[in-house]
Amino acid sequence: MSGFRESLVRLTEVATDPYGYAAEWKRTHGRKVIGVLPMNFPLDLLHATGALPVILQESASPITGGRGLLPEFYCGYTRSLADQADSGELDVFDAFMCVDHCISLLGAYDGIRFTLPSRPAPLTQFVASMDEMWSYPSVRGRVDQLRDQAEDFLGVTISPDDLSRSIRAFNRDRQLLRRLYDLRRAGHTELTPTTMQTLVKSSMVMDIEEHTATLSEMIDALAEDRSGRGERIPVHLSGHFCHAPKPELLDLIEECGAVVVDDDLYTGFRHISTDVPEDGDPFDALVRWYFDRNVKVPDATRAQNDVSWDQWLLDSVEQSGAAGVIVLMAKFCEPHMLYYPELRKALDTSQVPNLLIETEHEGLAIEVVRTRVEAFVERIRHQAKPLVATA
Amino acid sequence: MSVTVNEPQDNARAAGPAPVADTRGVSNRLSSTKLAGKMVKEYWDRLFTARERDAHVVWYNGAALNPIFEAAGLEWCHGEAFGARLAAMHLEGPAQLAAEEHGYIGELCSYARTHLGCAVLTNRNDSDVSADMSVVDVIDQETLASRLPAPDIFVNAYAGCSTGQQWDQATYRIFDRQIPFFKVSYPTLWGNQPDAGYLTGQEWDEASQFVAKELHGVIAFIEEQTGRKVDMDRLRESMRCIKRASELRLEAMDLCKTAPTPATYWDWIASIAPINFLPGNQALVDYFTAVKAEVQERVEQNISALPNERYRLYFDGIMNWNKLGWLADKFASHDCAVLCGRYTHNAFWQEPQLIDEDDPILGMAQHYLLCPTNHGFKTLQHLTNKDCVDFGIDGVVFHSTRTCRAFTGPQQILARTVQRELGLQTMFFEGDVADASFYNDEILESRLEAMLEAIDVRRLQG
Asked: N or C: which end of chain A has fewer CB within 10 A?
């Protein structure tokens, strides 16, 4: 059995070179690899075909050829995807699939389709408004279309039993990840934000059984932590849709005297928040999962009148004991830009200190961010212990 | 190429140095479109008094659902249209400042920012303005941006751009989630199946039926909210007038295949508001009858829109409302006739044959799906290439609209394909739909000159 660190090294390798893992998996298994666009695709369905579903990740490479496919005012993730198509990084994938309707994402998807015309790249759009009477049946129909598409270009049949097995496999992995989230909330200091990102990001890429096995070994090897958080300020990280914030940014936040106790990042708790129901028809269950997860962790890309990300965030902060919220927003992310004022208003009204940090594919002004986070941490510290006692 | 050429001015397109004339920069705009300004002003002025008249008001975005609202006896406010109006009048400032103060970031869609700012100001007006400590001062708050009547109902109907639905969800929240809200969802016409194409294929048929069903849902929702039936006879009459107006508009635009052209893209921009959101009635038909008559008369009398038409251009992208007159003059000053564009020619009831006057719902649904941001690039490529060929286009101008991801997403692919497949010159310039700060005149000037030089060189090379 590997120790915690050894397992983490393995998952870090995958998270750092996701397409290298995919290429190696394809070579050793002789099966197809499907590139999936975030954030609501049911990976379980593709797993049931025997293919490897991989959520496309932002590349560390600078964007060059991709500038000829998308303008500079698209988010860094979508520009990176276009660049990956142009540079050949996506060549490992046999097909692409997408259910999310985000105008920037579709721009990148069109760029992929234009650059790699021989690969299937259907859009099987899940309705984003969750409120209407036809929302549920519409998504149910789309799940059937996904099944048809996958069966068509993979040349297999997905039986309900196959899908149920895949759902159980993904649920098991999600449950293990959530257990680690619980440990972090409880104060386990080894579970840094970079570590948590590695664990979730690798789950988006790896063969899920292999990931679960590695994760199980890590949990078994994880020593009890009695060191405590000390004087560090507990914070919640919020947002950052579709792709992972840079690890150096996460490290910096903790270097400034904060300790991340919870998050709703996409490459974080948002992705693993919700299990697919294991009862009933498994294809129906994928639809229930889609609707459930917007309640479990509300999403600014979905429109649902009776669900509020802002209220969810306040509740989450109360439960985790976070003393402040750092909102990480990918520059040019329209759903996040549209929702942000609501988050800010709710946090301000409840007197929860909050800080907005915009991120970009290139050019993270690390020292500027350091100053802002340090000031944020000191502000919270002094609110807790006023320099001058009030009468 | 299906360009119709009037012999007497055919040599106007010959290669060679531009003639030095006092007329450069003077665009001979249609006089009939001036009526549009009056009609639109009257429409908004009436809307501003809705509360005084105890009228019910619906706020909506995206597709032209106004015939349904008209038949329901509602007064309608199209958010983008009001944002465009503010920008065209250079009055967008207070709304955008209010939005910024509320927390919206400057890179957000400027239509959305402007309209959300209006929502903030309208909501504020419903409370106590004098007690407010806003940076948008009382004088600014009294400007046009704050005159919208608060909504009784929201309907979102935004095809193509995901931001549209999220923006209306944000507006709903600004009004404290108290106002009834209905959302129409559109399948993107992505072209998944081999038989998929413009107005054809299983995907098109299924999407049409899906949206038609939703429109019946909109009608039921409105009837529930207002407590009265939607007048279907009135809807049919409205759609009959809109269909006729659309036919006239398309016939008039088609006459501009003539070289030199009798009218330009800027004339069709001036006619967008009437076809997009004014009531479907005889006045609308009369307006486009007059426009077509003027264009026809110009063709017959060899009157051109530009004194020295030397280049025929296609304009891709949404309009830059802040710079409408400026851009018209800019292109005219280079003897460029901008003839057609995705925004004017592939939107706004552009396929009237789809409308069954006796049962218009399906045809309406199909037009809503035909929003020019609701297609995958293959269909856009087809539409752009077709217009470029039909209108005898020399070059394509892409308005790289800073905060509009919907229009700009496929532009670079379109540029590549019109270069590759039609051999056309292309250029990009930066600007925005409703935020003047993103416009860069020097870049437009230098890139336009470069593109025209390239066209000249190609002509000389035969």
From this structure: C
**For residue B276, what is the enclosing H or E element?**
helix B272-277
Domains of chain A: 24-159 (3.40.50.11890), 223-384 (3.40.50.11900)
Structure tokens given for B258: 């003539």
Cβ atoms of B92 and B433 within 8 Å: the answer is: no
Nearest C-alpha in A relative to B157: A129
Beta-bridge partners for A36: A55, A97
Enumerate the residues of chain A whose CB falls inside 8 A of the CB of residue B318: none
Which residue from B161, B173, B182 is facing A103, i.e. has the nearest CB?
A: B161
SS3 content of chain B, % helix, strand, coil (to 5): 55, 10, 35
Specify the residue for token string 């069966």: A151
B108 part of contact set with chain A, CB < 8 Å:
yes
Identify the three-state secondary structure at position B399. strand
Tell me how far apart the alpha carbons of residues B459 and B446 are, in angstroms, rounded to a whole number.
Answer: 20
Q: Which residues pair with A55 in a beta bridge?
A: A36
- What are the pLDDT tens digits along chain B (462 aa)? 334 333 333 333 333 444 444 445 678 999 999 999 999 999 999 999 999 999 999 999 999 999 999 999 999 999 999 999 999 999 999 999 999 999 999 999 999 999 999 999 998 876 654 445 555 555 665 578 788 999 999 999 999 999 999 999 999 999 999 999 999 999 999 999 999 999 999 999 999 999 999 999 999 999 999 999 999 999 999 999 999 999 999 999 999 999 999 999 999 999 999 999 999 999 999 999 999 999 999 999 999 999 999 999 999 999 999 998 999 999 999 999 999 999 999 999 999 999 999 999 999 999 999 999 999 999 999 999 999 999 999 999 999 999 999 999 999 999 999 999 999 999 999 999 999 999 999 999 999 999 999 999 999 997
pTM: 0.94
Contact B337, B306 (CB under 8 A): yes
CA of A167 vs chain B CAs: smallest distance (Å): 27
Please report, for residues A54, A168, B78, B140, B231, the alpha-carbon distance to residue B151 in angstroms, rounded to integers and kept in the order given. Answer: 45, 47, 11, 21, 21
Find chain A residues with C-beta within 8 A of B412's C-beta. Answer: 68-71
Q: What is the residue extent of each domain of chain B?
A: 7-460
Rounded to the nearest 10 degrees, what angle do helices A76-87 and A103-115 cross at?
Answer: 0
Chain A residues whose beta carbon lies within 8 Å of the beta carbon of residue B381 = none
Contact B103 A341 (CB under 8 A): yes
Closest CA to A326 of A267, A367, A363, A380: A380
Residues 173-232 of B with CB under 8 A from A: 173, 177, 181-183, 185, 187-188, 190, 192, 210, 213-214, 217
Contact residues, chain A, for B105 at CB < 8 Å: 337, 340
